[in-house]
């Protein structure tokens, strides 16, 4: 018991204080259990490095697609899609998408990741207005997808991955 008459806790409490750019985040560890304090720690508080909870992924938009970027920024577009190439298959719930268009950038947390075999399969599960708010129909959305260089072949080979943000 400490001088204030408080019974010490017998477990470690970790509190996230900030994320760093890199593979670690900083935590403050608090404990009143002096047996668990390691050499080099001062008092009952210590700072240590631990692995980040989520990973950051950069998604680039062409300047001609600035409208898509603005729809995400304004919260109108809540699902971002890419061809489900191996590059994007590693994105998981909780990761952060850093969305870049020219010099503008924003960060969005991934709430859900879904992989579909085709655009049709995706639009059966997700309303097309959440994916492409400016498209009036699935046919128009498909036309936009096929307008990207090499995208028709990528979609046929890999399918499509949808990130709810």
How is this structure best described in words?
The strands form three sheets. Strands 1-2-3 form a three-stranded antiparallel β-sheet, with no helix packed on it. The relative contact order is 0.15. It has six helices and nine strands; from the N terminus they run E-E-E-E-H-E-H-E-E-E-H-H-H-H-E. With 165 residues, it is an alpha+beta fold. It has two domains: 13-51, no CATH class; 56-164, Roll (Archaeosine Trna-guanine Transglycosylase, Chain: A, domain 4), CATH 2.30.130.30. The model is unreliable at 6-52 (pLDDT under 50). It has helices at 66-73, 86-89, 119-125, 128-131, 138-147, 151-158, and strands at residues 13-19, 24-30, 45-51, 56-61, 79-83, 96-101, 104-109, 112-116, 160-164.
């Amino acid at each position: 018991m400490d001088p204030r008459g408080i019974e010490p806790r017998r477990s470690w409490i970790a509190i996230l204080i900030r994320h760093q750019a890199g593979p670690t985040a900083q935590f403050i560890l608090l404990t009143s259990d002096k047996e668990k304090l390691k050499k080099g720690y001062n008092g009952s508080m210590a700072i240590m490095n631990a692995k980040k909870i989520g990973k950051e992924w950069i998604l680039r938009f062409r300047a001609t697609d600035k409208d898509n970027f603005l729809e995400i920024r304004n919260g109108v577009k809540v699902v971002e899609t890419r061809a489900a190439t191996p590059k994007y298959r590693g994105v998981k719930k909780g990761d952060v998408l850093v969305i870049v268009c020219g010099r503008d950038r924003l960060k969005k947390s991934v709430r859900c990741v879904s992989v579909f075999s085709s655009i049709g399969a995706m639009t059966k599960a997700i309303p097309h207005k959440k994916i492409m708010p400016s498209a009036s129909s699935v046919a128009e959305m498909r036309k936009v997808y096929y307008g990207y260089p090499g995208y028709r072949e990528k979609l046929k080979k890999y399918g499509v991955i949808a990130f709810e943000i």
